[in-house]
């Protein structure tokens, strides 16, 4: 397999785009995609101070690296949730990341608020993930506001958004649009804007970027996280229908089309989307053929 741009040996075959790229051409391609997505959806403003929330995983490491590369004004935030060895390893990685990118790292420890996620897990097993999510959102917003940041950016990916949507729809739950949007403006002065600069990027694309650019990340996973069943279903659909995740996402974020006044077909008088209804157009085409 050869690089479509330069002909060297390709390292990745991007089925969603139908192209293969080499080690040198891939980062350029990736950065350009992120840049275009940020512009198109108004995810970040040129001059604002951005707090990039990093977990040590490939996605948020890729996000921090690409934002820095694109010249945004960023600092990192790592939240020590107190999850045993996992938190220790994640902290080592984000410290590395901060050095590697030459970007300031801020660390907030949940323990300083009186508890850890490991303690939550011992006390109320089933609710651990939602409690952890509450703690992360609280700290991101409070630290962000108190430190004068205009927006908090997270490393959510296209698969995160699509699997979240499908899981909720399949479970009969209403899906709040904010969760799907690439940027949410504050509805109160105590709230900091939230952005997902990688919301159109796939996990595979982020992984390739951190690998090719030698950006620090860890493969370690949270010991309390349940099996990502809906994610796996989404991977499986993508495997069978390349491009599914990106197309689905595009459909989710597209604003609903506005309806003007109802129109009527000038031939038969039924409801039509144009001057003549689709049925009359069809009839006219075939009428003469008999
Ligand atoms: P998750 O909810 O674990 O899927 O993570 C979603 C996003 O939240 C990540 O991409 C990060 O931007 C952010 N995040 C997760 N864990 C942490 C953490 N411990 N500290 C800071 N940010 C985090
Ligand atoms: Zn190439």
The number of E-state strands comes to 10
Q: Strand order, main sheet: write it out.
A: 5-4-3-6-8-7
- Mean pLDDT figure: 94
N-C termini distance:
53 Å
Number of individual domains: 1
Strand content: 5-15%
Q: Can you identify the CATH class?
A: Alpha Beta
Written as H for each helix and E for each strand, in order along the chain, the element string is EEHEHEHEHHEHHEEHHHEEH
Task: Supply the CATH architecture.
Answer: 3-Layer(aba) Sandwich
- Major sheet, described briefly? 6 strands, mixed
What portion of residues is helical? 40-55%
Would you give the CATH topology?
Answer: Rossmann fold
Backbone CA Rg: 23 Å
CATH homology superfamily? HUPs
> Total number of helical segments?
11
3D shape: globular
Class by helix and strand content?
Answer: alpha/beta
Parts with pLDDT < 50 across at least 5 consecutive residues: none
Ligand roster: adenosine monophosphate, zinc ion
């Amino acid at each position: 397999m050869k690089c479509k741009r330069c002909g060297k040996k390709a390292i990745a075959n991007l089925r969603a785009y139908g192209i293969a790229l080499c080690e040198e051409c891939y980062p350029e391609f990736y950065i350009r995609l992120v840049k275009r997505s940020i512009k198109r959806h108004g995810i970040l403003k040129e001059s604002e101070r951005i707090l990039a929330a990093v977990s040590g995983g490939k996605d948020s490491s890729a996000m921090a690296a690409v934002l820095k590369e694109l010249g945004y004004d960023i600092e990192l935030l790592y939240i020590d949730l107190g999850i045993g060895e996992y938190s220790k390893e994640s902290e080592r990685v984000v410290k590395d990341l901060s050095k590697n990118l030459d970007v300031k790292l801020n660390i907030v420890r949940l323990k300083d608020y009186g508890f850890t996620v490991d303690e939550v897990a011992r006390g109320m097993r089933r609710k651990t993930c939602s409690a952890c999510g509450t703690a992360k959102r609280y700290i991101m917003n409070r630290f962000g506001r108190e430190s004068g940041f205009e927006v908090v950016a997270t490393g959510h990916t296209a698969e995160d958004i699509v699997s979240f949507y499908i899981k909720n729809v399949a479970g009969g739950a209403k899906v709040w649009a904010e969760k799907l949007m690439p940027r949410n403006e504050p509805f109160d002065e105590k709230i900091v804007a939230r952005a997902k600069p990688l919301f159109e990027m796939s996990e595979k694309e982020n992984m390739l970027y951190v690998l090719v650019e030698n950006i620090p990340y860890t493969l370690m996973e949270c010991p309390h996280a349940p099996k990502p069943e809906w994610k796996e279903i989404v991977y499986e659909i993508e495997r069978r229908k390349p491009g599914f995740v990106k197309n689905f996402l595009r459909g989710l974020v597209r604003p609903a089309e506005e309806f003007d006044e109802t129109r009527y077909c000038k031939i038969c008088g039924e409801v039509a989307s144009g001057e003549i209804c689709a049925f009359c157009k069809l009839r006219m085409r075939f009428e003469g053929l008999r």
